Amino acid sequence: MRGWAFGVLLCASAAVASAQVGEFSVSGGGSHFGSASLGESAGALVDLHDGFHMALRFTLNTYKFFGHEFGYGYSHSNIQIHSVPVQDNSTSIHQGFYDFLVYATPEGSRIRPFGAAGVNFSSFYPPGASVYGGGQTKFGLNLGAGIKVKVNDRFNVRLDVRDYNTGKPFNFDNVSGRLNQIQVSVGVGLLF
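Request: output the structure for the sequence above.
Response:
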């Protein structure tokens, strides 16, 4: 067990040691849900509506045109049950993600467009549930693009568009398909 843990630690430190630039960023924006029908509850349709999104990202640029991004995201939206009367309840989504980044310009450039692809998990919490229990976690893939503009040697601003594709939560009746969450955010990054 110690040998395995040492190997993981060695690989992780090698990635950090070879990193040319790191970045910590905070972003905010909106979430749009495509295929937002979550199924039916007692014969009434259930939809997930748009909301706001915040994200924390840690990026390691390990080569001129490549990077790795780890992050946490929080989204807040509404679940609407089309019964009589219509029920509208707030819900939250916590996300963890990893993305491999490919830049169009080399490291050190003032403007860096990029593409991103990776894996994620999304933990959905129904109305009244807390993060300590009652949520449902779905795993998925994400794709996206963005641009980073260096303001000075310490800061940059960024624009991100990501599409998170996961299973649909809460196990309502007659559910089908997958859930697409498209996030558009603007943020600021600290370079180190």
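The domain at 22-191 is CATH 2.40.160.20 (Porin).
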